[in-house]
Amino acid sequence: MKTVTTPREARRAIDEIKKAGARVGLVPTMGALHEGHASLVRMARARTEFVVASIFVNPRQFGPKEDLSRYPRTLEADRRMLEDLGCDLLFHPNDADLYSPADRTRISVEGISDVLCGAARRDHFQGVALVVAKLFNIIGPDAAFFGQKDAQQALVIQRMAADLDIPVTILLGPTVREADGLAMSSRNRYLDPESRSKAPAMYAALASARRRIEAGERDPAPLAAMMTGTMRAAGFDVEYAGAVDGATLEPLERMAGTVLLACAGRIGGTRLIDNVTLRVSGAKVEEIVLEFPEWSRYV
Ligand code: AMP
């Protein structure tokens, strides 16, 4: 696996590959890789001939009081993991490689960036959209792979790519969990033993909401109250918990169609998020990963 740090080097490596007719898959990450990231690299490996992973802790998506400086950085272990997974190219720029001090361009995806995780983190999705647009322009992937765990992020990126006519297929992989249900996250390593033992309550809240929907509940209000209560009882400071429309992220009046059960909260000072996405049609309820069929035409 080759490692490149500048956009120019990345383009040079990929131009040659594309001339040879290979399709390029991109897995953008912030590093501190775990099995969730690995599953996306495997997905890319199975769908495209040349797999690029990026590791970049993007300062633009962190708020002033967030954990940018202490975000885990484990480059050597990450590199070994990517190598073992058969990744072809690692793009690992530093801040100055990606951002010019003269940069003035911002990308704002309206509406879906302002709710859920965007309500409390005002500029977060602007930062995400900008860095992913830059990565798409530098790498020119045929397909890019994201995790269902960050469903809102995937929606924002898909909308950005569609609105800017970026010819990339966005594909999502299912959320990879620890044995006790906790969604894998680079931030899990911040959890002290007590918080780690309580953290699975977030998934327990989602799983019990799902069971109630399977049992026929169609009113979102009692489910939101139950999810909030379950998380609070475990010690979470709840940021949001409830059901929204899986396409628009608007509140639901009744459970039907694509339903995103989503929650966020802090435990022991660490912010965690999780979701379960369901397709509800009549009495039938099934868990899904989001798909963007209208834009899945490149791979
Ligand atoms: P991050 O490094 O946290 O920015 O994540 C990079 C990519 O990995 C994003 O597309 C995430 O949605 C995805 N990801 C993170 N955690 C998981 C997980 N537990 N399961 C599946 N995908 C994940």
Can you give a write-up of this model?
This protein has helices at 7-19, 35-47, 75-85, 95-98, 117-120, 124-139, 151-163, 193-198, 201-214, 220-233; strands at residues 2-4, 24-29, 50-55, 89-91, 143-147, 169-173, 237-245, 257-267, 270-281, 284-287. With 299 residues, it is an alpha/beta fold. It folds into 2 domains: 2-173, Rossmann fold, CATH 3.40.50; 186-288, 2-Layer Sandwich (Pantoate--beta-alanine Ligase, Chain: A,domain 2), CATH 3.30.1300.10. The chain has a 6-stranded parallel beta sheet, with helices on both faces. A 4-stranded antiparallel beta sheet has the order 7-8-9-10, with helices on one face. Helix 3 links the parallel strand 3 (50-55) and strand 4 (89-91). The two termini are 23 Å apart. The model has no long low-confidence stretch (mean pLDDT 96).
Itemize the secondary structure elements and their pairings:
Blueprint: E1 2-4, H1 7-19, E2 24-29, H2 35-47, E3 50-55, H3 75-85, E4 89-91, H4 95-98, H5 117-120, H6 124-139, E5 143-147, H7 151-163, E6 169-173, H8 193-198, H9 201-214, H10 220-233, E7 237-245, E8 257-267, E9 270-281, E10 284-287
Parallel strand pairs: 1-4, 2-3, 2-5, 3-4, 5-6
Antiparallel strand pairs: 7-8, 8-9, 9-10
Helix pairs in contact: 6-7, 9-10
The structure holds adenosine monophosphate (AMP).
